[in-house]
Design a protein that fits this description.
Distance between the termini: 30 Å
Low-confidence stretches: none
Shape: globular
Keywords: Decarboxylase, Lyase, Magnesium, Metal-binding, Polyamine biosynthesis, Pyridoxal phosphate, Spermidine biosynthesis
Number of helices: 22
Helix content: 40-55%
CATH architecture of one domain: Up-down Bundle
CATH class of one domain: Mainly Alpha
Strand content: 15-25%
Cofactor: Mg(2+); pyridoxal 5'-phosphate
Bound molecules: pyridoxal-5'-phosphate
Largest sheet: 10 strands, mixed
InterPro entries: Ala_racemase/Decarboxylase_C, Arg_decarb_HB, Arg_decarbox_C, Arg_decrbxlase, De-COase2_CS, De-COase2_N, De-COase2_pyr-phos_BS, Orn/DAP/Arg_de-COase
Protein name: Arginine decarboxylase
Mean pLDDT: 94
Radius of gyration: 30 Å
CATH topology of one domain: Methane Monooxygenase Hydroxylase, Chain G, domain 1
Number of strands: 23
EC number: 4.1.1.19
């Protein structure tokens, strides 16, 4: 359990079962409900669905929606807070239709709404958010079409709030609202002085891309007043960054936001909502710390700080408690999906090596290295052995370049060198003190497990911003993992790798995995990929979107599940079409070449037909390795 810290990042959803398989509890309030991941994999195989793939646990999505809403409701009650809570899900975090539909459905009892940050997202939320009670919040930069759509949504009786990101947007909105005779609901986004901590800290502070300064907010309120629309100003919005690692930033932003709200109220602008944006973090590495992949607080603490923080200021300033809005995306979606990939090979640290038997007339450098391996078992001063071996290896390389030793002798020296380092590594394993240079040995001697997926498609943030995602074997976790390794993907790019892992001692560049058995598939799960990762990946090397399976648990048998839907990933044809190729003319071109070979007698007609079909099948096939 400690090796992969499953319980720590699993948040009640994931744990290691007694049989060593990863188990999922899709609703932590009902621990009878438990799915064995191995059974899910077996069913996927039985259905003939190809790996790698995304597995979505829709029940987890529903659980997170309910958890966030209930946490707010309970805290409001406990704090005797008079305003309510009306959350919205920002679809940019995961726009997949099935995900958004599930969230809307699970959120219906709470009047949970949607947030859009672009015109395409607005068109989406207009169609999906059919509940007239829930909010539709519109952030991001807007043009005339955007405003018209927002006002159409108002005409259709929706609670659609246009959040003004810069002053000129307000002028545009007022003009079109007057033209159409529709009263808008207006929000203003405040450029906060408090900055979040973590990778998205630049969403706050003076240089933030979005939002109005205090004087711009006052001007905006007065502008609405001048146009007889003062009562349209209903919402104050702020968002100081995603994945807030330190709860202090949340507390500070609430204190600042609550004061702005109160002052606007006192100036006569009766705002009804305060929207605290997103930012609720996920403990990706299970460390519960302020490092970038974690957070030092729980959802409960986050909600309590918002509710109590707002209440305190409002009571002191003698203004009504506003309805609280939050736009959590990461916390809603991260847990529900994971990527399952197969390990398709092991790249050993230094190859297999060659035979190092003594031969007549071998060079003294080879003999020197061999001598070290002969004495190492009885030698206490490992540092001396390490230094000598390193020096001989360096000398050997020079000697080879000067044609003093042969390629074969160099290979022998390298083979012996890595054998010596292997022995040193074993001896220092439990030592109290390990010199700095030797600490690198675990990494230097580790393998690379080749995994059938693309980091750029399925785990973009690990590459782009060093985000840590939990990676664990889905089976055999009751066996000691004996192979230290990092993971590499199948793209032709040396950045296509994972080399930051959760370990017993913090973050490590290697992770222990099990040895590969020739007759057994070894599956790894990349977890917490439901937020951003799912939709931000690119098609580097033309590896396309993954197949997806959507898993639901059975109501009548909590240990059972069913694949509700399989969504095909990209075929080669799909990705080629996006890149402006015409797969059918490509097939024609290859067929023509084959036909020419047949005509010239260089290929049998029957063979020609087979190759033509094969090429066409590959065009229709999956972009990943067929295993
Ligand atoms: N709201 C706004 C305005 C955002 O920019 C973001 C993302 O950065 C979110 C909500 C979602 O934030 P999170 O995923 O941290 O909940």
């Amino acid at each position: 359990e400690n090796i992969y810290r499953v319980k720590r990042w699993g948040d009640g959803y994931f744990e290691i079962g007694q049989n060593g398989n990863l188990h999922i509890t899709p609703d932590p309030s009902n621990t009878d409900m438990r799915i064995d991941f191995k059974a899910v994999i077996d069913e996927i195989k039985q259905e003939g669905i190809q790996f790698p793939l995304v597995v979505r646990f829709h029940d987890i999505l529903r659980s997170q929606v309910a958890l966030l809403n209930k946490t707010f409701q309970n805290t409001l009650k406990e704090a005797e807070y008079n305003g309510g809570y009306m959350g919205v899900y920002p679809i940019k975090v995961n726009q997949m239709r099935e995900v958004v539909e599930e969230i809307v459905d699970a959120g219906a009892p709470f009047n949970y709404g949607l947030e859009a940050g672009s015109k395409a997202e607005l068109l989406t939320v207009m169609a999906l958010n059919t509940n007239t009670e829930s909010l539709t919040i519109l952030n991001g930069y807007k043009d005339e079409e955007f405003m018209r759509l927002a006002l159409l949504s108002r005409k259709l009786g929706r609670k659609t709030i246009v959040v003004i990101e810069k002053f000129s947007e307000l002028v545009l909105l007022v003009r079109i609202a007057e033209e159409l005779g529709v009263a808008p609901i207006v929000g203003i986004r405040s450029k906060m002085t408090v900055k979040g901590r973590g990778k998205w800290a630049s969403s706050g502070g003076d240089r933030a891309k979005f939002g109005l300064t205090i004087s711009e907010m006052i001007n905006a309120a007065r502008y609405l007043e001048e146009h007889g629309m003062a009562d349209c100003l209903k919402l104050l919005h702020f968002h100081i960054g995603s994945q807030l690692t330190d709860i202090r930033a949340v507390k500070e932003s609430i204190a600042e936001g609550a004061m702005i709200y109160s002052e606007l109220h006192r100036m006569g602008f009766k705002l009804e909502y305060v929207d605290v944006g997103g930012g609720l973090g996920i403990d990706y590495d299970g460390s519960q710390s302020t490092n970038d992949s974690s957070r030092n607080y729980s959802m409960q603490e986050y909600v309590a700080d918002i509710v109590y923080g707002m209440k305190q200021v409002c009571d002191l300033e003698d203004v009504p408690h506003p309805i609280l809005v939050s736009e959590s995306g990461r916390a809603i979606t991260a847990h529900h999906s994971c990527v399952v990939t197969q390990v398709v090979g092991e790249i050993k640290a230094h190859g297999a090596g060659i035979a190092t038997k003594l031969v007549d007339g071998e060079h003294v450098l080879v003999s020197d290295m061999r001598e070290l391996i002969e004495i190492i078992d009885n030698q206490n001063n490992l540092q001396e052995i390490f230094n000598d071996a390193s020096q001989f290896k360096e000398q050997a390389l020079h000697a080879f370049k000067l044609r003093v030793i042969s390629l074969e002798e160099l290979a022998k020296i390298e083979t012996l060198y890595w054998q010596i380092m292997g022995k040193v590594q074993l001896r220092i394993k439990d030592a109290e003190f390990v010199p700095e240079e030797m600490q690198e040995l675990d990494y230097a001697l580790s393998s690379q497990y080749l995994c059938n997926f693309s980091v750029f498609q399925s785990a973009a943030d690990t590459w782009a911003i060093d985000q840590i995602l939990p990676v664990v074997p889905l089976t055999r976790m009751n066996e000691k993992p004996t192979i230290n390794c990092s993971l590499v993907d199948i793209t032709c790019d040396s950045d296509g790798k994972l080399d930051q892992f959760i370990s017993e001692y913090g973050i490590s560049n290697i992770v222990p995995m099990h040895d590969l058995k020739p007759d057994e598939d070894y599956y790894l799960g990349l977890f917490l990929t439901g937020a951003y990762q799912d939709v931000m990946g690119d098609m580097h090397n033309l590896f396309g979107r993954l197949n997806e399976v959507h898993i639901f648990s059975h109501d009548d048998d909590p240990k059972d599940f069913y694949i509700e839907e399989m969504v095909h990933g990209s075929s080669v044809e799909d990705v080629l079409s996006i890149m402006q190729y015409h797969p059918s003319s490509m097939a024609k071109s290859v067929k023509k070449m084959i036909d020419e070979h047949v005509a010239q007698g260089q290929m049998q007609p029957r063979e020609g037909v087979k190759w033509t079909d094969f090429y066409e099948d590959c065009l229709k096939g999956y972009t990943y390795l067929k295993t």
